[in-house]
Structures are given as C-alpha cells and as structure tokens.
Structure prediction request, 1214 residues.
Amino acid sequence: MMSLNELKEMIEKELGALAFKVDSEAPNLIIINVEAPNLFEVAFKLNHMGFDHVKVVTGTDYPIEKKIELVYHVSSYTNIDLAKVIIALKIRLDKSNPKVKSLVKIWPSAEYLERETYDLVGIIFEDHPKLERLLLPSDWDQIPPLWKDFKIKTEGIDA
Amino acid sequence: MIPKPSTIKRHLEAIITGLKYIFVKNRLTLRYPEMVQLLSENYRGMIKYYMDRCISCTLCARICPADAIKMYTVGENKLPGINYMRCIFCGFCVDICPKEALEFTNIHDLAYYTREEQIQKPIEFSKGPPKPIFKKEPMKIVVKLDKSRGLKYERT
Amino acid sequence: MISLDQIIRLIFFPPIFITIVFPGLIALLIVIVFLIWLERKIAAKVQLRYGPLYILKPLGGVIQTVADLLRYLFAEVIIPRRADKFSFIMAPILSFGFAFIPIVALPISSKYFAFKSDLSLLVVLALLTIAPIFILIIGWASDNKFSFIGSLREGYMIMAYEVPLFLSVLAMAILYNTLDIIEIVETQSKWVWGILLNPIAAFVFLICTFMMTARFPFEISEAEQEIVMGPFTEYTGIIFGLCMSYSYIKLYILSLLFAYLFLGGWYPIVWPFTLNPIMPGIITLIKGLIVMIIGIFLRSVYPRFRVDQTLRIGWEGMFVLSIVALILSFSLVILVK
Amino acid sequence: MSEDKFMQVLIGPQHPGSGHMRFIVKMDGDIISEFEPDIGYVHRAVEKIAESKRYIQIVPLVERPILADTANINLGYILALERLLGIDAPPRAQYLRTLLAEINRIHSHLYGLGIHGIMIGSSTIFMWCFADREIWIELAQELTGARITYSYMIPGGVRRDLPNGFNEKLSKAIAYMEERLKDYEKIFINNPVVTARLIDVGIIKKDDAIKLGIVGPNLRASGVAYDVRKIEPYCAYPEIDFDIIVRKEGDAYSRVLVRFEEIKQSMKIVKQVVEKIPSGPIINESYLKLIPPKLREKAEQTGIWKMPAIFINLKPRKGEAISRVEAGRGEVTHYIVSDGSPNPYRFRVVTPSFRNLIAFKYTMPGHRLADIPAIYGSLDYFPPSADR
Amino acid sequence: MVFSITRSLKSFGKFLRRILIRIIEKRPIRDIRDWGISYSLWPAHFTTACCGAEFAAASAPRFDAERFGFLPFTSARQCNVVFIEGTLSRKMAKAARMVFEQMPEPKFVIAMGACPIDGGIFWNSYNIVLAHNILPVDVYIPGCPPRPEAVARSIMMLQDKIKKMGGAKYDELK
Prediction:
C-alpha cells in the first residue's frame, strides 16, 4: 500500500522539472500543473508509470484571465495501488489560441473525450485522428457553448 | 453440423420453458383502465396546494429545478402556481415548504389535448390536480409482492 | 335466368370452391387473421401479459388483425420517388399471387379436388419456389439499402432451404412411390403416417418450412433490429399488407403439405366428416394448424440466427439429414420388397 | 481501393436497432470495414445548464440523462458535492444509499439484458426483463416515491426513511427473482441460438480494454478486476461482502454473463444491507437542526423528511472535487469546480456510456452486419447518458 | 402525344382518388375506418430520448399497451403514430420531422414527457426543440418521465379523438 503523499513524492521525482507544481488533495486526488509544451512528455512518463487510461477531459473557461484550463483525469486499471488515485493533469491555454498536442497516441481512451472537448470548449487538439463535431449539430456556427460568454436564458421566480 | 447432445438438450429446455409459461397462470399485467393502482401516500405525484397555509416565502419557486413553479400576484399576495408542462415531479417544493402548504397527491396518470390547460395558476393550483376521467369506475388495487408470481394485485 | 341451384352448383364446382372458399381465399384470410392474432397472443402469454384485448374483449381481441388490415386498407400508399414504380407495385402482388396459386393443386379429399395430376406435389413445390424471386425484385425496386440487403438475404436463404426441402419430399415420394398428393394420403391410410415412417424427412421438412416462411429462429430476411423490415421496408398501406401476409400464405400451404405428406392428410375420417366430400378438408386444416402453431410459437422461444449460420445449418445440417432421410427411405423400400 | 467495393449504410436514428444514435457503417460485402458512431442526438447540455442552476437543483438534472440508472449517478454527484461541502451522511443514510444503488443496479442490468435480448430477436427475454424490472421499481418506489427518477440522495443524507415492512417485501422479491433467473438461463443464457450469436463475437481483449479505457461490466468481462466499489469503497460498501465478477473471454456472451451474475451479487448485497442497517438519523446533524421542530416531529413518524431552507443556497468552499462511483453500466466520474457561489463554476460528468462509446469504433470492424445489434446490446450502451 | 396521355391518365387518377375519398368519407365506411385505425395504433421505433425507458415499460408486461392494439413497429412507413419520447435535440428534431413525413396518412403525434412539451428541466438548453413547433401534436403527456399508466391514457385519449374527429386528414388532396 502506498499513501497519497508517497505517491506524490514519487511522481515529483519522476517528472522532475517538467511539472511545475504537484499537489495532493484528500482522499484520492493528485494535481499536476504542467506547461503546455511539456504536456506530451509528462503524459508519456505517467503512462509509463502505469496510469493507463483517461477518465475525464475537462475544459474550463476563465474569461477574466483569458485562459482555458484543460484537465486530464488519469488513473490506472492494471496497478491496484495506482488505481486508488486519480491524477489531474492541468494545462492552462490561451483562450485566443487554444491549441495543444493530442494525447490520443499515449492514451487511446482520450479519443472521444478530446473530441467532445473540442466540440464544446473549442480546444484544438493537434494530431487528433478525427477532430470533428460530436455532440453538437454539424452546422453549429456559434461560439463553443461551454465558454462563459455563451449565455443561456434564465427566468426569475415571478411569472 | 451434427448437433451435439447438449445442444439438443438445451433446445428442448428452452422450448419446454416456453411451453410451461403458456400453461401456467402468471400474467403480470395491471389492466390499467379497469384497475388502478393505489399509489402509496408518499408517492411524488401531482401537487396540491393549500392557499390558507401559504406564507408566500417563495422557497418552492426558488428550489424548483425546472422553473415550473412561479409566483403570481393575487391581490396583495404572491402565491405559487405550477406549470405541469415543465414539472419534473422531483418533489423538492413539497419537501422544502416550511408550512406544509404543498402536498403530494398520488395522481400521475394524466394526459392533455392542449398545452394551455397544463398551466395552473394559484387558484386552480389550490383546487388540486384534475381527477383522471374513467369511462367505468375502476377497481382500486394495491400491489403486493409475491414469491411465486412477482407482483400480485389485491382489491382494497 | 340462373337458378339458386345453379349458383350453389357453381360455388361447389371444385376449381372455384377450392380457389375461392376452401382452402383458397376465404379460408386463407380467416386463417391469417386468426394466425397473426394467435401469434401475438401466444407470445403475450409466454411473456406474462395479455396481448391484443380491448378490440373484442369477450373473445380476447380475436379480430385485432382485422383492425390492422382496415388501417392498411385506408392508409396512404407511398411510392418512393426513386423506386422503380412498376416493379415496386407489381412484385408484391405477383409474389402474393405465386404464393397463392399452389393452393389450387391441393385436394380436399380423395373425391374432391380441382384437378387430378400425377405430379400435383411437384406443381405445388415448383410454384412455391417462384414467389421468392419476386422478393429479390422488390429489394431491387425499392432502392433502399435495407431492402436490398434483405432481399439478398432472402436469396441466400433460398440456397439454404430449397435443396433439403426437395430432397425430403423426394424421400417421401420414394416411400409412397408416387407424386400425387391424393395417392400419398391414400397410401398413408393403408400403412402408417409418414412421420413415423421417416421422421428424419419430417424434421427436415419442418425446419425448411420455418426457414422458407421466415419463422424464428430463421427470421433473417426481415430481421427487425438489423435491417428494419428487410425487403418490405419501403412499403406502405395495403401493399405492405400483401407483403406481410406473403409469408403466412407460404406457411399455410407448407403446413397443409406437411399434413398431407407426414400426418396422413384427411384420414382418419370419422363420423361427422363422412357426410360430404368437403368435410375431410377440415381434418387436414386442423393438422396443418397444429404445424402452423408450432411455427408461430417458436417466436417466443428463440432469437434469430445470423445468415451465415443459417446457411451452415442448411447445408451442413439439413442437407446431410435429408440425404440420410433419402437413404432411410430407400432401405425401407428395399426392406418391404 | 475503389469506392465501388464499399457500401455505406446509415443505421438510425429511426431504426429498431439503433437507439438514439446513428451508425455510419462501411460495408465490404457483409463485413463491416469501418464503423463510426454518430452521437449527439440526445445532447441536452447538462453541463451548461448546471452552471445556471443551484447545487441542489442539479440533483434531478444529472438523473435525467441516465434514466435507467438514476440512483448511482445521483450518488456520484452527491459524493462530489459532499466533498466540497465538507459534510458527511450519517451511517443509516449511507446504508439506505447503498440499498437504493443496488436495487437500481439490478433493474438497470435487467434493462440492459432485455434490450440486448430484443436486439438479437428474442422478444421474450425483453418482456421478461422489463416485467421483473417492475418488481424492483416497485420496491424503489416504495422507498423513494418515484418510479425511476428517485432524486433520493441529498447532501448530507437521504430524503426518506425505510418504510414499514420493506424487509419482508425485499425478501419476497429476492426469492421470486432467484427462481426466475433459472428460467432466464434456460430460455436465453443457455439457448443454443443465443450462444451461437454471441460467443466469439465482439471480442475485446484485456489489453485493448485497458487501452480504450472502457468501464463497468464490459471491462470486467475482458478480465480486468476493476470495480470502484472495491477500489475506492464508498457508502456502506466497505462493510459488505460481495465478489467482483470477472471473466476472461471478453466476447459479447461473457459481457452478458457478467451482468447476469452481477444481478445475483446485487441481491446478495441488498440482503446484507437490510440486515446490517443501523438505526439513527438519515440527515446530517447540521442540516437536521435547521428543520422546524414541528416538521421534524412529524417526519420522525412518517419517515418523510423535509429539507432545510438552506438547501437553496448551498455554498461550498472554493475548489474542486472529483468523485467516482460504480454505476450499473460502469464508472461515473463527477468533477465540480466551485468558485464559492451558489452555482457551480464548472460541472463535468463523464458517464460510463460515453467512455464505452470508443468500444464501438474498435470492436465492430471485421464483424457482419447482423452482429451490430448483438455487440451493441452486449455493450449495454445507453445513448442519452453518453450525450448528456 | 405520350405526355398528353400520361397527363390525362394522371388527372383521371386524381379524379378517381377524389371520388374514392368522397366515398370513404361517407358515414358507415368512415366509422369502420376510424374504428380500425383507433384499435391499430402502431408507433414507429423511434426513441428520441430517455422517456423511451418508460415507453418500453408501457409496452412491457406490467402495463401492456398491446391490449389496445398498440404495437411498436419497425419502419416509419408502416406506422401511424410517432411518439416523441422525451427531449428533441436539434439533430433529433430533423429526424423526427423526417420520420413524420415518411409515415403514410393518417398519422398522429403524441408528445411524451415534459421535455418535448415545454423543455422540462432542460428548458433553457441551447440544443432543444419543442415538439409543437415542428409537429402537429395530438396528445401531450406531462411528467418526467410520465408513468406508463399515463401512456396508456394517452392512447385511449387518442382513440377517442380519432373516433370523434375522424381518422384521416387527406388535406393535400382536397
């Protein structure tokens, strides 16, 4: 059994300077902040450590800072110790040019998750095998719906 | 392909099981318009509103996830009315009401010809949901679980 | 001036009576209405429910199919723009017609038949094999991929069932030493029923019947979850009604044929059926109905095979078994002689 | 390669075997050479709407997409929210959550089995599964007051206590179900036509399953013993004894068998839950004291608890939380980013069906057209939950 | 020459059709037709969203909608009811419209669940379409999802409507 802190240290040692911040949050989360250019290499190393699949790919819009935060939640099926932990791999991208290298080559399980993130958040994944609209209708011409400046209607409590 | 004996046995088993069900009394059907299941007291059906208990706190309208409950101005008060076109029957409004002015009924089997009649303003809302119309008085039944037949319907 | 007597005589004139009344059009319609209802009802019973009911509650909704037919009758007939109009309309009618014609060759009793031929059995079978060809035309004419795949599957199925079916019939013909249905039945009344003489041939014939009429587990050309409605995907209204009844007609004829070949036809004739030459037909019909009910009952037991598996069953199972049936017949004939 | 060699077949969305999606299939004769699922036909923007809703209002919202398995997805959301709020449910509530989650797993698996049955043509197994599902729905309705959209779990507890006579009903239901499962075996599981259709069809090897990141019974049928209930036990699962069903083959048939065995395991869990359930409150103390005393007294008698008014304005701490839960179809992951306001800043839910979607693309090629429904059904894919 | 023949044939066909419709719309035949249609409502296999689960439950043994002659059937061409089972997304709305157009007259629409009626909990979503905006809805069933009993009730209401108002609306031919 490996505790969360031990694992955190191990990851810090493994990644070295590639990750600029590693946090752990109880009960099961380790957060790794990465610069966009290093992402592919970090992902490669994590995959090598035994984190073999992606659970979630999330894009979050921060309009004030003009950034989009991209998070890969990664975990393991094969290694029971690692399976107990979820790694959040975080990258901040410029909202004006949200481009990042796709991780499908490392984690094939990210294929549809990345494609959905492209669809709804507008992040462009380079080298993705099929970067097309997935959930939205193919003739969607507005800004990506999960951006904060895409407003949906709301109603008050009065009729 | 000469079938193996086990295959023949499995074919026979399947056919015999099918045949068994033809001759066993086992129907599970609730013959709806003739029989109506009495849902339990806590069933989250359509909602009845007691105008006299209401203190116009707007909690129900504010918790409604679907924005189905709206506050209407009736005289000086603001009273809730419901839009069944949107209501999702989560029952949050009933559960959060501090004065028990809203109450579950066990009516949930209605359909409408038009959209308009599904909006209930406070006064209609306080009259309770419309009673479903039956051509013949239905038999009221309760559902019992049964070891051999699964569900059993008993007259109340 | 035609008298009532003449009209009655005209109605009971065998070629007319057999085509129009029994076992022809009217009986066929009643049987189909009853059979489709029964199919839904049996499935419903196995599936713990009622099935069609409220349309005629005292009789368990027996006229459900009548309502469905009425709806088909009054529904709009849509012909897809890209379809080949002529063959789109004609093919179902012709397939219905060719499936129906063999009825003429079916005798009601040894004294009452439309025509007597030494080859009546062959006539029935030959006419039955023409009908599926029009299914292929339907698939081509509809210009729909599902119709096309469905009719191709029907084509494959012909390969699977036709040879074993003919061989099993041949086995019986060798046993009875005739191809005349009347003689076959007469022979059985002297010996025992064919199903006891050559159970293998009976089994092969039965399975091939189910294949031919798209009963489960061989409901492949119309496989709902795969290719929607197969060849009939594009059909609406009354033409679809024809398409739907097409497989039931074949089931009807093949079941009657099964009764003639293996269940002793109209024998044994007991008292109420001795009154006139038409009555024995009812015995055949009852025997045929039993076969049909077995066919429709299987729906509630089996899912469906894949088309390649059916072909394998046809060639590796049924074909081999039909050869065995042939050998059995030969040896029986030699043994008796 | 010439274009003529391939035929493109579009299956769905109005097709008896497609569900709420479309398959773009390239056929080489009868063999599938390319398979592309086209989803989004039920995309209702749960994640965007959630940003405009209060935390408590998201409880019914997350249930809607995954209608066949509402309790589990609800539980996942509540676990994530409770992590943000820093509260916990009392032990009795934990057991009640487990109870509902397992009842729901049973009827979710029956749903999947039934749909799979009809996909390969057996209408009987469809009808049987949907009939026996009603028994579990009836039980859940007794407990929660709704047929399938339970909205039963709320932050800090559950809404209703165990009704009187529930244990007896449950034991009857289990006894009935165990008998019925034997008939299921005879007519469906062991049916030679079914085995012919499913064995060696749609094989996902262990390595591929890991690589594609598929979840739930599909993963376990490929030989990976991964079950969140064991890896990261939540609610009452640490105190309950059950097995993970694993099979090695990875074909459609083994996926059916895994689900079938899991129904039995779930019944075992349910039995233990009602035996072991402790007494006590069903809502966290801190919320309990906010309920007016008069209503609290009444609730203690009837077992129907009211919500405190604070639920409208739940304000979790700033930060983020992730939770995972083993739902009927596999692992559900909820990820909430909070900025301290009463609405979530970003709400992300990845449903098992969405993660299983990738399996279509990589399993189908090489099979026949007739295998599409057989494999589709065996993956127990529920399109609305994938599209959200 | 050929054209004029086909044209006259066509107009003759139209004339025949009009006469046929006249005859059909007369009392006894019309009553028989409406009776047949009302007991033979076949919805197409077209699940738009999650209410399909409850729709399936309505045709499953416990509520058995087949008692009313209600048989979910394969292709739109052979059906006469389209059930909007839950949310219509933009993509699905196109399909729903297409399915409706593929069906032969007379045809009916039932909107099931809160979503197609007024959006339900998804009323402010960017991707939904309301059923009455694209299809002529005959019966609305509120609820999210509606109980199977409500589905049975909607079938009965539709039967009543057909018997009262007449089954067919051969609009474009009149």
Q: What stands out?
A: The first helix of chain B runs from residue 5 to 23. Strands of chain B lie at 35-37, 47-49, 69-74, 77-83, 102-104, 119-120, 139-146, 150-155. The helical segments of chain B are 5-23, 59-63, 92-96, 122-126. The mean pLDDT of chain B is 82.
